[in-house]
Design goal:
Mean pLDDT: 88
Shape: elongated
Distance between the termini: 81 Å
Number of strands: 11
Oligomer: single chain
Helix content: 55-70%
Strand content: 5-15%
Largest sheet: 7 strands, mixed
């Protein structure tokens, strides 16, 4: 790394070229995740590049004038980033209203608003730890999360440099030609501290299983800070304040460093996957690899990639990388929605071509002209006003899908509420014996309204603990003075039976006590997610078992669990062991076989919304509809004292599982049953539970 290779310049073709594989990795990952399972590391490469370029720009100004003009800096960012980004938001909102079912309009508006204000990453972080929101369909603006991280970096990073310039006096002119040296030393400490704190938190969040960690600014800032530290090193080297051994700056060393770094990035891209703890330590490979390539600068001689770097197509993809990143994801989401499935290789190539065309148009018509528009460039105030106006327009448009959804849903909700309040004969599960017709009235109204189905939950409040909680919560329902007490125990698939159990208990004068926790089945075997640290089940399992065995008033234990859970050991043996302990304690167990689920890549409520006059189109085959991991029946063979309740016939008829029965929507999300449908199952549920209890 000679001084002329690392000096900070306004344009460096090797950095422009580095953007090309970064964006193509991300696009390839989104199109063909099985081929490039770790392609998401392209985002981390972008973070390092942004950190380096922005810090280099700020350092040049700070060294020249002793301060940073925030208005000019933010004006430049506004001209560079906002025009294309706000255009994408406007187009996506307009297209989304036409393409997406109105069940998704509210989420579309929320994501558009969050994207306009550069806080998408925090919205996604909140959703990732919200059990009910974690499985929401990926929105067409979800990729704006990384732009949010960068924008937040742009807000506080200049302030750090400005603070150092204010607080630290420059070197006096004279013997020391580098008057910025003292300030640079302080910046080394400030940037280094930020990087270490962020990296530490990133590692902690990753290995503690914090689902939000992937999106948080605090877990990503270290990657941009690495770019900032590299910019400091480049400036110091240019001033001879940082001298490197000649062998380090030799062409051969730099060429080898670039090749090894690219190889490391490639290995990460093809070996990392969704199970990789990320960002954390794993992100160091693309981050440091990118930093080494930037530090090496332009190269020549044997092993140099100089010709590839300067090849026009590579430079163009690098130039268009921002627009390509903006447009590719909405195109994929809309294609998936319209086609009903993920793209195959040929479709992926077509989507890539379409993304490149949109990127070309965006770059040529919007991005470049707005960045160079003299009317704005000569006046930071005009640029900032224009930026505020663009954000305001995008934010205003972002409100429209949610408002439109609300207006459309209000009328449907009134009809649905009237239908639920005075249900006609054959409402919901009652129509199964009549061939399971989708509608039993002339009014093709579904209850709950599909757009509000996600909220059709059991009314048990905080009695269902979140997966990370270290405590189980005991709650009582039904008849307080009941002489017969039933405990409902397990995960969210046990919880969605609450309505049926509680309604029947009230009719019998029974008491119901619950021990419920999302993602945590009542199973002595450890869940893999628990072992990985992303949830806490073993501790609360033991608490539930202790509470159940110590209570003298429990006469029956009803339990169920999601069959999709994966375990460290045999789940059937784990269930049998848990049940045996209860049976030995005189607590009879009644285990419910898990419910079927619609195809994994879709929401039944979305399908019904789009096929409201023909919900039969949303039915799916019973064969393959049940999670293969459901160990209920296998466990019952190991512990025959337990009675098994199977309600498969209440969800599937003649080999087909409908999404709507008797005007009632069966599924509130991807695999949980709506509370309304459960309420219509009370007669059958009660009859079968009572028969099982009486046969003990």
């Amino acid at each position: 790394m000679s001084s002329n290779s690392v000096q900070v310049k306004n344009f460096r073709p090797e950095i422009q070229a580095l953007r090309a594989p970064a964006v193509l990795l991300v696009v390839a990952y989104h199109l063909e995740p099985n081929v490039v399972p770790g392609g998401y590391i392209g985002v981390d490469i972008f973070f390092v590049i942004s950190g380096f370029l922005i810090t280099s720009h700020l350092l040049r100004e700070a060294e020249r004038s002793g301060r940073v003009k925030l208005s000019a800096f933010f004006a430049g960012r506004a001209r560079r980033i906002l025009p294309a980004a706000m255009l994408v938001i406007l187009v996506v909102v307009a297209a989304g209203v036409m393409i997406l079912p109105k069940t998704q309009w509210g989420t579309l508006g929320t994501q558009a608003l969050a994207s306009a204000f550069s806080v998408q990453n925090w919205v996604l972080a909140a959703d990732s730890v919200d059990y009910l929101a974690a499985e929401q369909a990926a929105g067409p603006l979800q990729h704006f999360w990384s732009l949010g991280v960068e924008e937040q970096f742009y807000l506080f990073w200049p302030l750090l440099i400005l603070a150092v310039c204010w607080l630290v006096k420059p070197n006096l002119p004279g013997s020391h030609s580098d008057q910025f040296a003292t300030r640079r030393r302080w910046l080394w400490m400030v940037f280094g501290t930020v990087a270490l704190l962020s990296l530490g938190y990133s590692v902690y969040a990753g290995y503690s299983g914090d689902a939000a960690g992937y999106f948080l600014t605090t877990t990503r800032i270290w990657e941009l800070a690495i770019g900032g530290l590299l910019a400091l090193g480049a400036q110091a080297h240019a001033k001879d304040a940082l001298r490197l051994p000649r062998w380090v700056t030799a062409w051969s060393t730099r060429n080898l460093a670039v090749l090894l770094s690219l190889m490391a990035i490639g290995i990460a891209a093809f070996s990392y996957d969704g199970a990789t703890v990320f960002p954390g330590i794993a992100a160091a490979v693309p981050v440091l690899g990118c930093a080494v390539i930037i530090a090496a600068g332009s190269t020549r001689g044997p092993g140099s990639l100089h010709q590839l770097v300067n090849w026009a197509p590579v430079q163009w993809v690098g130039l268009a990388s921002y627009s390509l990143y903006l447009w590719h994801w909405p195109l994929i989401v809309f294609y998936t929605e319209l086609s009903g499935g993920k793209p195959k290789p040929l479709q992926s190539l077509a989507l890539l071509a379409g993304s490149l065309i949109l990127a070309w148009g965006s770059l040529k018509i919007v991005e470049t002209p707005m960045r160079r528009l003299r009317f704005l460039a000569v006046s930071p105030r005009r640029s900032l006003v224009a930026g505020v106006a663009m954000v305001a327009v995008a934010a205003s448009v972002a409100l429209l899908p949610g408002l439109a959804q609300e207006r459309m849903v209000q009328q449907e909700s009134r009809v649905a509420a009237a239908l639920a309040e005075k249900p006609p004969e054959g409402f919901g599960a009652a129509s199964l014996s009549h061939g399971a017709p989708a509608f039993i009235t002339d009014e093709h109204q579904v209850v709950p309204v599909p757009a509000e189905a996600a909220n059709d939950l059991p009314d048990i409040g905080s009695c269902v603990q979140n997966p990370q909680s270290t405590q189980i919560k005991e709650c009582e329902f039904g008849s307080k003075d009941g002489t017969f007490t039933v405990a409902l125990v397990g995960d969210s698939h046990a919880a969605h039976w609450f309505e049926a159990l509680n309604d029947y208990a009230l009719s019998k004068g029974w008491k119901v006590v619950t021990y419920l926790k999302n993602s945590c089945p009542f199973n002595a075997a450890q869940r893999k997610a628990d072992q990985d640290g992303s949830i806490n089940c073993q501790e609360t399992f033991e608490q539930s078992m202790d509470a159940l065995t110590k209570r003298n008033d429990i006469d029956a234990v009803v339990t169920s669990s999601w069959g999709g859970s994966t375990f460290v050991s045999d789940p059937a043996k784990g269930l049998a062991a848990a049940w045996a302990e209860l049976e030995d304690a005189g607590k009879p167990v009644y285990a419910i076989v898990d419910t079927p689920r619609p195809p994994k890549d879709s929401y039944a409520r979305d399908c019904v919304e789009q096929n409201i006059n023909n919900p039969q189109a949303c039915s799916f085959p019973q064969k393959g509809a049940y999670e293969k991991g459901d160990a209920t029946k296998a466990a019952a063979k190991l512990e025959p004292r337990v009675k098994v309740l199977d309600f498969s016939d209440q969800f599937c008829v003649n080999g087909t599982c409908p999404a709507v029965v008797g005007n009632v929507l069966i599924y509130r999300d991807k695999h949980h049953i709506s509370d309304t449908y459960m309420s219509t199952l009370v007669p059958v549920f009660g009859q079968r539970l009572q028969r099982a209890i009486d046969s003990k």
